[in-house]
Amino acid sequence: MGHARRLLATTAVVALAATACAVGDSSDDSADSGRTVVTFRLWDEQVAKAYEKSFAAFEKEHPDIDVQIQLVPWADYWTKLPADISSGTVADIFWTNTSNFGIYADSGALIDVGAELGDQQKDWKQSVVELYTRNGKLWGVPQLWDSIALFYNKKLLEEADIDPTTLHWDPDPAKDTFLPAAKKLTMDAAGKRADEPGFDPTKIQQYGFNAALDPQGIYWNFVGSNGGIWQDGDAFDLDRPETVAAIEYVVDLINEHHVAPPAADTVNNGDRTRDLFVQGRMALFQSGPYHLKTIQEQADFEWGVAPMLEGPKGRIGVVHGVAAVASSATKHREETLEVLRWLGSAEGQRPIAEGGYAFPGVTSVEQAYVDYWTKQGVDLEAFLQSASGETFPAPVGPRVNAGATAMDPILKEIFLGRRPVAEGLAEAERVGNAALEQ
Q: Where is the signal peptide (predicted)?
């Protein structure tokens, strides 16, 4: 499972057992040792292993500070966080995503990172810095980031004689090379491909592509590469022609062309398409590096990573990132800032990169992550390219999560083929923006 993908409440994540959580009060000092306890909260069990290594090195240099990791499952994270901020029991430092930090920045609950650690900012991934800059101030220290590329099954593409680096989607059929390729890569139980007479869409054995209600991996990238937008400022703006055409294209891949699994199988299971890919039952899987470890461990076939699909406006995908923010209510401000400074350093993030967990927020240790995967025989250049060009902004704003929650049932109806795309997006925009005002 992933890290930055978990930024989005609409995606499924692995639930950590309640016994794995150690949620404490940040006011607890380690009286026996005379050390100051600084608490650090996150939701990812795998990345927590990298932080354990990181903080062990930190504590050798700062023997007077004891950094304690709190692991809170994603399912509880965003309900527990506001409650703990209100009661004063929130961790000194905690992970956040773009959908959730704005409300705390606006309410004064966070330390102004730019003012305190401005000298380090030049070392950080600038696209993530921009995501956590609000009202002219930087509120978070970039910890890890994701971009989008195209995983592919080498054998299936060779059999169909398709080069994944050349695929171009377009609402204009005369310019579209992707849909014909996706049809060629989709096969029924009798071995008939989707572009052949007699193909049975009710008995599909192999899918061409992972079109689904997946914002980060799929539909925001289609919207961006068609010149559409999802937000205008903090407000949702879904019914522009470019956005409607992009969503229509994705929905048709599922319901009209049957080159992707039925939405009924995927709208409530964010991992269904990844599972089909690792089972060898899906040829192309567009997603982020958060799936690398699972694919590496579970796929028993040769696979590669190509650039994300090209659209009418080029390859324009989502770059998302997780940041560490600090509570302005911490009782140990100086020690908290010392830990935060470490979290924004190459030394502090090297275990994340060297362990192959994620692209780190400090650019100087990016290569260590690339090197890890190069040793595994995986080239990450497509992810780097995706992050270096024009990108599609992830959702921002203090109430964006409430808006996304309100829109979700309507978006599901659209992907299930139960609502016309244009009408559904207009309604989703209306209810989403109404939720922002509440």
A: 1-22
